[in-house]
Amino acid sequence: MPPARDVAGMTTKKHIAIIGGGPSGLIAAEKLAEAGHAVEVFERMPTLGRKFLMAGRGGLNLTHVEPLEIFLTRYVPATPALLAAIRAFPPEALRAWADDLGQETFAGSSGRVFPKAMKASPLLRAWLGRLEALGVKFHLRHTFEGWNDAGEVCFSTSEGTVTRTFDAVVLALGGASWPRLGSDGAWVAPLTRLGVPIQPLSAANAGVLIHWSDILVSRHAGSALKRIAIRFGDHKARGEAVITKSGLEGGAVYALSRVIREAVARDGHADITLDLRPDIHPDQIVERLAKTNRKESFSSRLRKAASIQPNAVALVNEVATASGKGLPKDNYTAVAKLVTALPLRVTGMAGLERAISTAGGIDFAGLTPDLMLNARPGVFVAGEMLDWEAPTGGYLLQASFASGIAAAEGVKRFLG
Prior knowledge:
alpha+beta, FAD/NAD(P)-binding domain, Elongation Factor Tu (Ef-tu), domain 3, 2 domains, 5-stranded parallel sheet
């Protein structure tokens, strides 16, 4: 594509740095290169899109088909700038973009949207091919360190510090979840020195910490609890969870992680209930228990009567034993209540090293409506560096793409 020109026909190509090789950075690079600018992408890892590829292991849930006004309610805080970015690049636009790369999408029964290939690698290969054709240059193993006194961008490399000057910069360094994939939150320090307001980074869509006995851990850690429901206050989520050495993780847990995290921060703990059979009434379990063979162990009888797996029976025994009273084997109503409303105390949240995403980040109060830092004009921010969070289900990638495009549009306006 030829460089952009002004009304007099003079070349107006500018040199722009995209710092971060995830989806928000790469989409910003694409839009700016399409506008005719010279774009260079800097990534601290040896390859691009590592977390994007990790997301592809679950099928690469790009977005969701629910109505946009409902879709937008999934974001907290509901910042006008973020919502405007998604309105400007909504789910159907993201699907059209993927289709244009030869990666046709489909919506599953839950409304989640995936590429038909059900993985990220074909899409990423096609995308990088497009960027290379647009003239985008890539610099790997370049770690962003901030700016020097001369205003140059500084990168640490295996060969020492590299400094560069650009007409504009887009920061797309991610949050701090799964740091081994590249997003470690190290950008907080140089931006804090600039006076940029940043909300503390914390785990979102994360597991919860619950104390288990050594016996439960040895026998059932890593096993899945299927078709369950979790309640916390007025909030309820259905899905699956996995028993870990230190608690629970999985989709049903992630859906409530924000409200649980806030309760733990406020009260030091959060009391949740686990419904191991949300599709049947407790009275049905009572009736079925009464018909079981009393010669069998009670655990076997409960497993058959409630149609639950051995790990679920173990959880019921775990809670009953921890209460000091033991399992009320002669009180079927009390047993059924445990199966359908098992009380568990959450004492904390799992760390960022295994969280799906990050809460907190750069406060929108420190940005212009174009996502430019007030503290350093010409520097724009996109993706999980910004202070927002959303559940899994396509909302995370949608906002990453949309904010990357919004930052690119902001760069265009800044450069005139």
